[in-house]
Amino acid sequence: MLRLRQTLDLFANLRPAKLYTALLDASSLRPEVVQGIDVLVVRELVSDIYFGEPRGIEPLAEGERGFNTMSYTSAEIRRVARLAFELARQRRRKVTSVDKANVLETSVLWRREVTELAGEFGDIELEHLYVDNCAMQLVRAPRQFDVIVTGNLFGDILSDEAAMLTGSIGMLPSASIGGTVGVFEPVHGSAPDIAGQNIANPIATINSVAMMLQYALRQPQAASAIEAAVESVLNQGYRTADIMGPGCTRVGTTQMGEAICSALRTAASAPQR
């Protein structure tokens, strides 16, 4: 995946964390804390410590030393930050830039570049948070966030934390964009331990198709139709094992997918008002 992202120059990974009302009780946090959360994490995807050189493991007189290089250029920071500001204009007009500028020189540069770029977006509120504080705030008061933009390493961690606010990592889609093509996938990756058991949650994959329609094919109405079908099925009480709750109907991967397809067909055939 790392090689694919870098080769295609997919420099921005969009990870939305939106809690469906029907899943309030599925979150590990109290309902009054997570109700209404709608956060978009914009993660820089092709730089940072995952790609920096030099890297390796070398011998020492006693044992070994492992090392990696965290590196960002002004251009790499500005292009992902610009996208975050543009996306915030379509949402609630707030960007939270996350770094560790009190310790890391890369973060000093990150904060400087984002601050300067913000001058082009006077209609967007910008705040800066250290990554440790942001991690705490995500579980303390997640509704304060709109768009979070951050580097590759911090974004990897924070987006998974945000995923759990929604009840399950099986709920979150993602879009990796910036190059001539995009990659749209659930954030959770593969799960070989449950392969073939018909118990995986397909909603993140289905909503990844919605993100493809939204960001690659410019079909926002089709994207909204998929998201509405998912919400309708959840409101009917259907649940896979990872989001199962009292009084709900447990279904497998196939059954959940069929229910969402059925909801899509029903909506499509309904008379237009």
Q: What does this protein look like?
A:
By secondary structure, the protein is α/β, with parallel strands linked by helices. The protein is 40% helix and 19% strand. It has nine helices and eleven strands. The protein has helices spanning 2-7, 31-34, 74-88, 105-118, 131-140, 152-165, 203-215, 220-235, 253-269, and strands spanning 12-18, 38-44, 56-59, 64-67, 94-99, 125-130, 147-150, 173-177, 183-186, 238-239, 249-250. A seven-stranded mixed sheet has the order 6-5-7-2-1-8-9, sandwiched between helices. Helix 5 packs parallel to helix 6 (152-165), helix 7 (203-215) packs antiparallel against helix 8 (220-235) and helix 8 (220-235) packs across helix 9. The chain starts with a helix and ends with a helix.
Sheet with most strands: 7 strands, mixed
Mean pLDDT: 94
- What best-fitting shape do the alpha-carbon axes yield? globular
Distance between the termini: 44 Å
Question: Which percent range fits the helix content?
Answer: 25-40%
Record field, number of beta strands: 11
Q: Unreliable stretches, pLDDT < 50, 5 or more residues? A: none
Series of H and E elements: HEHEEEHEHEHEHEEHHEEH
Oligomer status? single chain
**Rg, nearest Å:** 20 Å
**Widest sheet: strand order?**
6-5-7-2-1-8-9
In terms of DSSP E residues, the strand content is 15-25%
Number of helices: 9
Structural class: alpha/beta
Features:
273 residues, 7-stranded mixed sheet, 9 helices
Give a quick precis of the structure.
40% of the residues lie in helices and 19% in strands.
